[in-house]
Design goal:
26 strands; metal ion binding; 4 domains; globular; oxidoreductase; single chain; binds iron/sulfur cluster; N-terminal domain of TfIIb; Rossmann fold; 693 residues; six-stranded mixed beta sheet; seven-stranded mixed beta sheet
Length: 693
């Protein structure tokens, strides 16, 4: 009550950075976020009292003077301020004209995992019902699309199978690969470190000696992009030595013989030759994992962002199945999802060109009937273009209009010079965001949106847990929640959405999306720890870990899908002798639109850098902190050298968060054929010193 008296508001909410989904109380006063305090323990299933530096100090961006406060309309090279009516009318006019002249599929919609579930549901509804285009996608395409499809093919649901606290926090053994967990999912990493201190085994396989490696039972340095070899090698060694879970395989899986045959060539010697991981390390890890009662297999974009990303995920899933580590507590497949709401908004809500909300088949007539009955419009029943393909279609002039909600493709697409050219070819671009991002600079109309600190809604964290988001402050100027903007826009096109807030949108989700059938706002109010999907009706308590009874297939059995070997697309050569890989740092987030506006975070890491092994730095004549030019076949950037031994001398690293020295000037547009994820993780480059500063 003291807080209320002094005009301070407290919101019990969910972090808007990573998908660990930490809960805390966010305090605000007079439109300004004041800070974050730990929440009541019942309401913090993932984090107890902890938060990382981003959760604790990273909300200052909300107060930034650079927030968009009014709609903007392009006027030559500049923007001018506009009213909401003017801006929305303009979008309606331009998109309608493009549709009339070129058909529905000349327009694409990009949705955002930063936004709430309700907003993402409406973004895909705006695409499918209002604009009737099949081209709707979101940033999940660029981070874990290969996880989603790899897990759908093997176990059924494209999601983490287990819980953070009770399972990841209490398992007997970990295999962590392609995840710099301490930097990217700090609170989750703390759980792992605590459990390792209490005796759990931890195996880290990674090209870089990341923070977690310091705590590992064994760290094994891998070569970027060569993961299928060592994963298949582990499976081979386990089967060869009769360490596989025969009963589990017999009762719960199919196609084991196919797997057995496929992994046959991957002897420890062969793996050593392909990956540099010694036979001794490989067999020790394989045997410990196989003998452990429970094991968690954790990964992130080091596994997924490859032109063979789906096969990497299949290989991990095969290993978990061979060792029987599914359908029981303290075990499971744990993709560490990136953004706050990428599981829900990017996946479950279906803003994707190949699936309706809840991963429902968009060619199934009964499902299409259900949506048509609710919306009065039948959703397009063909797969649209995936995000990177949309940029090709823009370049070729097939897509002419684009509506982007909360995404920054001018920094996040691979080969951004190509992406920029594609965007410049559009007849019309509308961007809805909280800042004038690098992408919004290209827009014809910019709409000011509310941040997560200013609205109601839900986020779904990486363990499928749906949690409430609540406002601590009001939005600056005329900015509005994405939900309201989308509803206003739908109205311009003659669709009266008439939602009475996010709870009402969730009621529609309950009706149309079976895995969210029982996730109502009433229940979320009285269930502070949230609900984990599948949660099919009001009496369903939700599903803490998946596949206890059966896998998500008609016959209930998991499938082994053998992973064919593949390496990186681009290998070092004389001209581009170094392998560049990418990742996050603790103090920043994705394209940095929020964290680059927070002084506390910028004080720690103010600019882009390239980490170079001391031996290589010597060879190149580069000293620490000197600016260097990094060049690939796509382009070149200038960035600061950080001379440090984290990888082999031939491997260098650049974080993904910066507009100057942007790594995606260098990356390539090679796509995984199943998930269409780009090969961000391996790029051939050369480095030249630019002399002392
Ligand atoms: Fe937010 Fe993730 Fe940090 Fe938790 S670990 S405070 S969810 S960024």
């Amino acid at each position: 009550s003291d807080a209320r008296l002094s005009g301070v508001t407290k919101a019990e909410t969910t972090c808007n950075y990573c998908a660990v989904g930490c809960r805390f109380d966010l305090y605000g006063k007079d439109g300004e976020v004041l800070g974050v305090r730990p929440a009541d323990e019942d309401a913090t299933p993932a984090n107890d009292f902890s938060t990382c530096v981003k959760g604790k100090f990273g909300y200052d961006f909300v107060n930034s003077p650079n927030r968009l406060k009014t709609p903007l309309i392009r006027d030559g090279d500049e923007f001018r301020e506009a009213t909401w009516d003017e801006a929305l009318d303009r979008i309606h006019e331009e998109l309608s004209r493009i549709r009339e002249e070129n058909g529905d599929d000349a327009i694409a919609v990009t949705s955002s995992s930063k936004c709430t579930n309700e907003e993402n549901f409406l973004a895909q509804k705006f695409a499918r019902q209002v604009l009737h285009t099949k081209h709707v996608d979101n940033c999940a395409r660029l981070c874990h699309s290969s996880t989603v499809v790899g897990l759908q093919q093997t176990v059924g649901y494209g999601a983490m199978t287990n819980r953070i606290n009770e399972d990841i926090g209490k398992t007997d053994c970990y295999l962590i690969t392609g995840s710099n967990t301490t930097e990217s999912h700090p609170v989750l990493a703390t759980r792992i470190k605590q459990n390792v201190r209490d005796g759990a085994d931890l195996f880290v396989f990674d090209p870089r000696k990341i923070g977690l490696a310091e705590h590992a039972t064994q760290y094994s340095r891998t070569k970027p992009g060569e993961d299928i070899a060592w994963l298949n090698g582990m499976i081979h060694h386990i089967i060869e030595n009769d360490l596989h879970d025969e009963e589990f395989i017999e009762e719960k899986t199919k196609h084991f013989d196919q797997l057995k045959e496929k992994v046959e060539p991957f002897t420890p010697e062969k793996v050593e030759e392909l990956t540099g991981v010694s036979a001794e390390e490989l067999t020790y890890a394989a045997e410990t994992i196989a003998k452990a009662d429970t094991c968690i297999f954790g990964w992130a974009m080091g596994m997924t962002q490859h032109a063979h990303g789906t096969r990497n995920v299949l290989a991990v899933a095969n290993l978990a199945l061979v060792t029987g580590n599914l359908g029981k507590p303290r075990a499971g497949l744990s993709p560490f999802r990136g953004q706050n709401n990428v599981q829900g908004g990017g996946g479950d809500m279906g803003p994707a060109p190949h699936t309706l909300p809840g991963y429902q088949d968009l060619t199934d007539d009964a499902i299409l009937d259900k949506f048509e009955e609710s919306w009065g419009v039948r959703p397009p029943d063909e797969t649209g273009l995936r995000l990177p393909e949309q940029y090709d279609a823009m370049e070729e002039g097939h897509i002419k209009g684009m509506f982007i909600m909360g995404e920054n493709p001018v920094l996040s697409e691979p080969d951004i010079r190509g992406a920029e050219k594609a965007i410049e070819k559009l007849d019309f671009l509308a961007v809805q965001d909280i800042f004038l991002t690098e992408t919004a600079e290209f827009a014809d109309v910019v709409l000011p949106a509310a941040s997560a600190a200013e609205k109601h809604g839900t986020f779904t964290n990486t363990e499928r847990r749906i949690q409430r988001v609540r406002p601590a402050v009001s939005s600056p100027g005329k900015a509005k929640p994405d939900l309201e903007i989308l509803a206003d826009l739908a109205g311009r096109f003659g669709f009266d959405w008439d939602y009475d807030g996010p709870a009402d949108v969730m009621a529609e989700i309950n009706d149309l999306v079976p895995i969210y059938g029982g996730v109502t706002y009433d229940r979320l109010e009285s269930t502070p720890e949230g609900l984990q999907w599948p949660c099919e009706d009001e009496s369903d308590p939700g599903t803490p870990y998946l596949y206890e009874e059966e896998f998500n297939f008609d016959d209930g059995k998991a499938r082994f899908v053998p992973a064919d070997y593949a390496g990186p697309v681009e290998l070092p050569d004389e001209e581009y002798p170094l392998m560049l890989t990418s990742g996050r740092v603790l103090y920043h987030w994705h394209t940095g639109t929020m964290t680059r506006r927070v002084n506390v975070l910028m004080d720690h890491v103010p600019e882009s850098f390239v980490t170079i092994h001391p031996e290589m730095a010597d060879q190149l004549g580069v000293t620490d902190n000197e600016y260097v030019r990094v060049t690939s076949r796509r382009g070149d950037i200038v960035t600061k050298a950080n001379v440090e031994e984290t990888s082999d001398p031939g491997v260098v690293f650049i974080p993904m968060h910066f507009a100057h020295g942007a790594i995606n000037e260098l990356t390539q547009h090679e796509l995984d054929p199943t998930s269409y994820i780009p090969e961000y993780k391996v790029t051939s480059v050369r480095i030249q010193p630019l002399g002392p500063n």
